[in-house]
Amino acid sequence: MLQLSEIWIYPIKSLGGIKLQQAQVTDRGLEHDRRWLLVDENGLFQSQREHPEMALFQTEIEGDFLSVTHRFKEDKIQIPLLQSFSENQKRIPVTVWDDTIEAYEVSKAANDWFTKMLGLKVKLVYMPENSHRKVSPKYAITGNEINSFSDGYPFLVIGQASLEDLNSRLTTAVPMNRFRPNFVFTGGKPYEEESWKEIKIGTVSFFGVKPCGRCVVITIDQESGKKAGKDPLLALSKYRKVGNKVLFGQNLLGVENGSLNVGDEVKVLSSNQS
Questions:
Q1: Terminal-to-terminal C-alpha distance of the chain
Q2: Owning domain of residue 26
Q3: Are 148 and 103 in contact (CB under 8 A)?
Q4: If you ran DSSP here, which 8-state letter would residue 130 be given?
Q5: Which of 111, 122, 231, 273 is 20 to 30 Å from 12 by CA-CA measure?
Q6: In Å, how far from its chain's centre is CA 55?
Q7: Quick one: pLDDT at residue 89?
Q8: Interval 24-70: pLDDT, tens
């Protein structure tokens, strides 16, 4: 049996994640997942690709707040989970890859805190409910799927067997947090998730749209916030490369809301191998 073993959200894109026992599936990803984003003065998204030290920011849900701390600096900021903005408050355009999305600046205090902690002038923005970022029509199921500030798709699933197979090829094993999945499952064969077309986790349906192309972020040690050599990207490139993409994990789209729990069964309803 395939079983959901881990659930992760990353409330602020490219910062540390939160491991959950239970999560709500919404129309743009897991609840609170990548609804916040750090941008530069031009509204361009910031990530660990350019600033690996972003990995050092830890996030935690404390009551009605998202708390952010820094692994090596004693300071903390709390941001309301339920963001409210007045009707006359100006939204600003922000850019994630090829998409421009309307977002609200959270607060001057948040901008100042992250600017000070990062040593880089940034703004913290939030994606409101009425800001819709469409998934690429090439991979959409209904054409109406929307996404948060994640790179391209609202969900990413990786099998524990895939990580174990990769680690068997490495001199130094890497943890799952290098790959920033939303879902981890146990059971099954290495990389089988990359062939999935339709699955159910518990009672909630998902569609596999394309394997995840990996980048330099997977070479960043999430504990030190520093690049830790060329692996695992180099190792993966030797046996998981298709065209110019190095693959690890499967991007998913959801077509219904619902609740998930660690321990839920993962059922494969159809795959490219079936």
A1: 17
A2: 2-271
A3: no
A4: T
A5: 231
A6: 13
A7: 86
A8: 999 999 999 999 999 999 999 999 999 999 999 999 999 999 999 99
